Amino acid sequence: xxxxxxxxxxxASPGAAVGRxxxxxxxxxxxxxxxxxxxxxxxxxxRLHDAIARSxxxxxxxxxxxxxxxxxxxxxxxxxxxxxxxxTLIGGAEALIxxxxxxxxxxxxxxxxxxxxxxxxxxxxxxxxxxxxxxYVGDRIVQNLLGVPTELTEPxxxxxxxxxxxxxxxxxxxxxxxxxxxxxxxxDLGGRTSxxxxxxxxxxxxxxxxxxxxxxxxxxxxxxxxxxxxxxxVIEPSEQDLAEIERAAGEYREEEERALATKELEARTTDxxxxxxxxxxxxxxxxxSIIAHGAxxxxxxxxxxxxxxxxxxxxxxxxxxxxxxxxEALPGRPVTVRTFDLGGEKALxxxxxxxxxxxxxxxxxxxxxxxxxxxxxxxxxxWRASPYGELKVMFPMVSGVSExxxxxxxxxxxxxxxxxxxxxxxxxxxxxxxxxxxxxxEVADLLAxxxxxxxxxxxxxxxxxxxxxRTNQDVAYLYQPLHPAILRMLGRAVEVxxxxxxxxxxxxEMAGDPAYTLILLALGVTELSMVxxxxxxxxxxxxxTSSKEAKELFQSALALAGNDEVEAYVRHxxxxxxxxxxxxxxxxxxx
Length: 591
Hints:
Glucose Oxidase, domain 1, TIM Barrel, 3 domains, 8-stranded mixed beta sheet, 24 helices
């Protein structure tokens, strides 16, 4: 084989890097398994509690080192400390020692495996990956039981590429947020919604996760080249490989330079159609990056992060401080905050309840209405934060007018309460909904009379319309954004918004894919919200095209019979028309 070993993975954080591998052996320590005599059970329980105490002390020390870093990072560590007091984990392990007469290490592993199964049926990848947090806490306890070091004994060299089976949240935050100049990250496990990916994107460190065998194939000090935009990793790259990565790095740098150069320019077509480009974020620390990339504000701020791995919900004050920081970081720019989109099995561990079909169960606004004790503190905090910026609020997954009115009643009640409590609030706040179900599209004319704006969430709308689980690889090929049914629904939502004089934004993954930009323009979409680094390409494309060209492409695509043909035709045409914006993806393989 010419060149180095090429691996493909999840493009978790964009950019390209070349550096020497710093291999972290974070694979799980193999625990001893031993059946113990009854008289030793008390000793094993004492060992367990001693290991828990040491684990808590270690996490407290890490928490202290994170002073001055983003609040969300510290909250992750605090969530892990809370797990150390969870009766399901610790009480369960203690019960196994006494009932099954097994050593403490084995008991911890067994109870962790049981807890992991609670996450297996979750269809949302963000929350499914939270099972790793249970593993991290279990690993730390076992390491302390065995006397194995739990932290890095030496920092990585400057500009190294971290290579690991996985990175715990503590490792990710300590390595990425402590002043170390890390060139990039490669892991066997993880995805775009893992803590490592979130932190890497926030701090703009290129990362390729989910490479499966990377830590087995990489040796300490090996030269590693990675492209975090394409999800490509090359071990001991050849001159040709290096040239390819350098080309990717150059393209990314040029894109970043374009972002800085065009951030003040409007996303206006050659025939004068103005398109608003906003960003989807989940960390306040992403704000400098989205501003540099030319975002007109935040079109979707996900608030689920505040509920991550907690036995108790975030307080009203925690909500308020987060929203205030966000608004103050974006003066003069609108910020749309989505109330928490959690499902019954995806929320707080203490409240979790398994469901047969979570995607169609108690989630999003339904969960909010079922749990006003969680919903009202968030709404109160939003009203309290309203004087600090241009705030907009939206409810997720609304399917009908009655549901919307119930949620709005809580929204209005929250305002009355905070005013009565003496807080200064805005006279009013624009209130909108996520259009994510076929039902919402069908009754869009009724919903439009009740709200200030629509935000179309294409990820769920496609899933529910085409009756596919977008996380199921067996039916992934059916996930087709350009399916005629989807195009008709998008067209209807935009038309209803126009008729009723309300804004209609689009904030799913479809919004940030430049291959679909002209189709969306032809449908009349004039507000898009996407990950920050997608904005420059979409903006440049809009500035080089006209609505007439968009409509011509749209009509030609609709003339094709097959759904696959439409997708293939549109992507081919976009590459042909804008070759500098649509590079061919790099091939990758292992071996």
